[in-house]
């Protein structure tokens, strides 16, 4: 966490130049802070927010869970801004703070530089419980994760509503400044009561939306009678990315005659408790990088010897929030708004969590309900046999769970809700997730053991070749993608292709092909800078990559209370800010107020007196009009 460079408060370690304003002399702004924000669905609001002007509290570093009594009952200077080390950021502590919120102004969590020991997942034990295929109507025995608790470490913290702001702080010099301020002014010594001035923190993260998505979308409706409608929330969404081994006519929609497609899918998104700290190394990134690597390996093969069925690569956004991306693609296929429809799909293969963090093998999951159909069963067996053969050739262990076990949370479930389709989901877990940090800020590069020898520069880290990659050089591209997505987007490989933010172009580069021009998209690739040149040698890549809107059909249909589609929306906000300062005691504040009022009263009396005596005080002696000289 960095400190704003234009402040010169005594605790600022890198002050430059004199202060030019009163505000700069009082406050230290904190950068690299990440807030918890408010999300809404059809029935609830979750997340955090501050009051309109921000919330202020006396800083207290919580040293242990037993120390909670001080901030909740016995402390003399509430409300408190509680600073938590990562090991205390758990459901028990947070719920106690929530229940004692009248004495809590806010919470700041210090994000450690290395992952904690143990497990932490703020998601639920049954992700996307109500929007997958397993419902009372599909198979009551499998509904609500009755068969398998997929995320046993889930504590549901991300789905709680907090009435105070909660921020994440990066553990760096800025955190040390806060800690030193606390030690100097706030920490009780030998049972003594801290005396003013005390070190305080202000957190500002006021959210505009309240109650639920139905309410916030009604208030944001620009077609209403309000003269000045204000957008208070937005539907969660982004873009799906898809491409095929041969061109599909993007100008046509609906059923494509004589076209049979195998969908190879993965999710792009992830989430965490704090807005923006959600790398999803195992939960999302491992899957889509694996699919990208497979697509890249097959690109030349499929160009030279086209497969009997078209492979359609689909990368879905918003899957963490009730399958936004996959449900939108299914909706478009059903409504003839996609180049193919569901009847064109031969089968679906999805790559899930494949980080292999806690296991040595992979597992092929299937749907036990659709397999009761003989034709589906035949195709599913063919798919599993193909995967088993490939795994054997690569010396990878591949297993199949009990045939009665349902699918794990996966985009495939949204296709099955529409109609029976043969398919498999490839993961690194047989039953419950092996990912101890599912949908948390700790699901990062370190969790996948993506580490480097000490002392390497960023460029040296990027070029570092692991022992595994030395044996299998094809894994170098995978290592480069992992480095780019999980550690540093500004790296030579990404910059030679596209800007780091242009994921669709990257996917297009990987699965580029030579389809008819009218069925292609074209992307300008920056390329590398040749020797003795100052500009990169760019070139054009032709591919079938397309973008498709990943926004829940609920918002297209105006069904904001839908139980079929995702209804998640995100509140808008105007100001996100965190700062520390010294706050005076109540007696001093009252004395200052009293002196200020006295000065005001005296000023008013003087003004009244001067005004009343203005003719006398400001008159000048005048000579008689008839005076002569």
From TrEMBL:
InterPro entries: Ncstrn_small, Nicastrin. Keywords: Glycoprotein, Membrane, Notch signaling pathway, Signal, Transmembrane, Transmembrane helix. The chain crosses the membrane at residues 590-612. It holds the Pfam family Ncstrn_small. It is found in: Membrane. GO terms for cellular component: plasma membrane. Residues 35-209 form the Nicastrin small lobe domain. It comes from the Eukaryota. It is a single-pass type I membrane protein. Its main location: membrane. One of its GO terms (biological process) is Notch signaling pathway. Belongs to the nicastrin family. This is Nicastrin. It comes from Gadus morhua (Atlantic cod). The lineage of its organism: Eukaryota, Metazoa, Chordata, Craniata, Vertebrata. The gene is ncstn.
């Amino acid at each position: 966490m960095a400190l704003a460079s234009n402040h010169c408060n005594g605790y600022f370690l890198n002050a430059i130049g004199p202060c030019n304003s009163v505000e700069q002399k009082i406050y230290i702004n904190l950068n690299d802070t990440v807030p918890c924000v408010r999300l809404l669905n059809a029935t609830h609001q979750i997340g955090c927010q501050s009051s309109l002007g921000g919330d202020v509290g006396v800083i207290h570093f919580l040293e242990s869970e037993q120390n909670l009594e001080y901030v909740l009952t016995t402390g003399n200077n509430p409300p408190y801004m509680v600073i938590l080390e990562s090991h205390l950021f758990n459901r028990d502590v947070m719920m106690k703070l929530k229940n004692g919120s009248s004495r809590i102004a806010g919470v700041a969590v210090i994000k450690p530089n290395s992952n904690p020991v143990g497990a932490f997942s703020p998601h639920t034990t049954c992700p996307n419980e109500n929007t997958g295929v397993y419902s009372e109507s599909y198979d009551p025995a499998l509904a609500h994760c009755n068969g398998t608790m997929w995320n046993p470490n889930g504590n549901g913290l991300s789905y709680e509503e907090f009435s105070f702001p909660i921020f994440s702080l990066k553990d760096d010099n800025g955190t040390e400044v806060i800690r030193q301020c606390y030690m100097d002014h706030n920490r009780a010594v030998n049972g003594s009561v801290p005396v003013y001035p005390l070190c305080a923190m202000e957190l500002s993260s006021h959210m505009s939306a309240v109650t639920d998505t139905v309410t916030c979308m009604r208030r944001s409706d620009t077609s209403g009678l309000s003269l000045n409608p204000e957008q208070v929330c937005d539907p969660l969404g982004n873009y799906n990315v898809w491409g095929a081994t041969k061109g599909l006519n993007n100008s046509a929609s609906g059923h494509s005659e004589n076209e049979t497609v195998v969908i190879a899918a993965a999710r792009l998104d992830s989430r965490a408790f704090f807005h923006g700290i959600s790398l999803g190394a195992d939960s999302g990134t491992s899957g889509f990088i694996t699919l990208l690597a497979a697509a890249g390996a097959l690109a030349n093969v499929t160009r030279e010897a086209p497969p009997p069925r078209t492979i359609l690569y689909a990368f879905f956004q918003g899957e963490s929030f009730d399958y936004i991306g996959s449900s939108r693609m299914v909706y478009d296929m059903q409504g003839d708004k996609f180049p193919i429809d569901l009847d064109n799909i031969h089968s679906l293969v999805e790559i899930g969590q494949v980080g292999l963090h806690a296991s040595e093998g992979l597992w092929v999951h299937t749907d036990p309900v659709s397999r009761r159909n003989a034709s589906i069963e035949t195709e599913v067996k063919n798919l599993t046999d193909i995967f088993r053969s490939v795994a054997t050739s690569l010396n990878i262990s591949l297993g199949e769970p009990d045939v009665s076990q349902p699918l794990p949370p996966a985009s495939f479930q949204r296709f099955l809700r529409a109609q029976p389709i043969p398919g498999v989901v490839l993961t690194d877990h047989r039953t419950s997730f092996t990912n101890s940090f599912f949908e948390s800020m700790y699901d990062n590069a370190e969790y996948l053991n993506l580490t480097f020898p000490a002392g390497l520069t960023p460029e040296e880290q990027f070029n570092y070749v692991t022992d595994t990659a030395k044996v299998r050089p094809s894994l170098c591209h995978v290592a480069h993608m992992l480095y780019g997505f999980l550690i540093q987007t500004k790296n030579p490989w990404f910059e030679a292709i596209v800007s780091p933010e242009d994921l669709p172009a990257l996917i297009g580069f990987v699965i580029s092909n030579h389809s008819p021009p009218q069925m292609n998209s074209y992307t300008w690739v920056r390329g590398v800078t040749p020797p003795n040149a100052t500009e990169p040698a760019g070139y054009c890549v032709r591919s079938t990559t397309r973008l498709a809107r990943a926004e829940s059909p609920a918002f297209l249909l105006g069904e904001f209370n839908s139980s079929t589609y995702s209804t998640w929306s995100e509140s808008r906000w105007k100001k996100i800010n965190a700062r520390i300062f010294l706050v005076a005691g109540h007696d001093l504040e009252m004395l200052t107020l009293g002196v200020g009022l006295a000065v005001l009263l005296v000023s008013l009396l003087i003004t009244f007196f001067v005004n009343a005596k203005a003719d006398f005080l400001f008159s000048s002696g005048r000579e008689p009009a008839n005076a002569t000289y």
